[in-house]
Amino acid sequence: MKYNYIAIEGNIGAGKTTLSNFLSNILSASLLLEEFEENKFLKKFYESGDYALQAEVQFLLDRSKQLKEFYQKPHTTIVSDYYPNKSLIFSKMNLNEEEFNLLKDFHHYLFNEFPTPDLLIFLDRNIDSLYNNIRRRNRSYELNMDLNYLKKLDYYYENWLEKLNIPIMRIDADTIDLNNPEFLSLRFKQLLDLDFPKTQRVVKLALT
């Protein structure tokens, strides 16, 4: 396989963790999952819109600690359900300019030592489907999230993707059929054997 570090991204509720678990299994890869349950400021932010700076700082600290521990062991192949650089999306969207510039410097200082993904898989999913997934998984801190927030985040994700300098494989998340694992496994192995340029490329899982 051509890619040793694959990160999966997408809006909230896109199915990042589900696909990460699937790919890590079929590729016999180390699995790196985002940890956010302990961010005590996140629920407060979703409830009131306050504590955005505190929530983002907490994310940076937690993720940098997680990565330091993760990279203490050797890994041949890595599949992750997040790219640490995503912090800049949420910071740009939720903080004022002064706070964002502070977070950006802080982010660079904490994460500059860690490797960049060889490939980013971005999951496209329509807003209604995202919202339904979020309601279905019933996480208490997400219950106050509305469609407008997801639409705004979609816009910021697009701007972020345009500036990345890594290969990006975009997939319609609704076409990922986990009820057909043999085909899905074969198709992803085919795709991951292709050379992707450092730009966005839309791929189809179906062969026809």
Give the overall silhouette. globular
Helix and strand element order: EHEHHEHHEHHEHE
Our Rg estimate from Cα atoms comes to 17 Å
The CATH superfamily title? P-loop containing nucleotide triphosphate hydrolases
Please give the largest β-sheet.
Answer: 6 strands, parallel
- Percentage of helical residues? 40-55%
What structural class do the secondary elements suggest? alpha/beta
Total discrete domains: 1
Question: What's this, in brief?
Answer:
This protein is an alpha/beta fold. The chain has a single domain, classed as P-loop containing nucleotide triphosphate hydrolases (Rossmann fold).
How would you portray this structure in words?
This protein has helices at residues 16-27, 42-48, 52-70, 87-94, 97-111, 127-137, 147-163, 181-191; strands at 5-10, 30-32, 78-80, 119-124, 168-172, 200-202. The chain is of the alpha/beta class and 208 residues long. The protein has one domain (5-202): P-loop containing nucleotide triphosphate hydrolases (Rossmann fold), CATH 3.40.50.300. A six-stranded parallel beta sheet has the order 2-3-1-4-5-6, with helices on both faces. Helix 4 packs antiparallel against helix 5. The longest helix has 19 residues, at 52-70. The protein is globular, with a radius of gyration of 17 Å. The chain starts with a strand and ends in a 6-residue tail after the last strand. The model has no long low-confidence stretch (mean pLDDT 92).
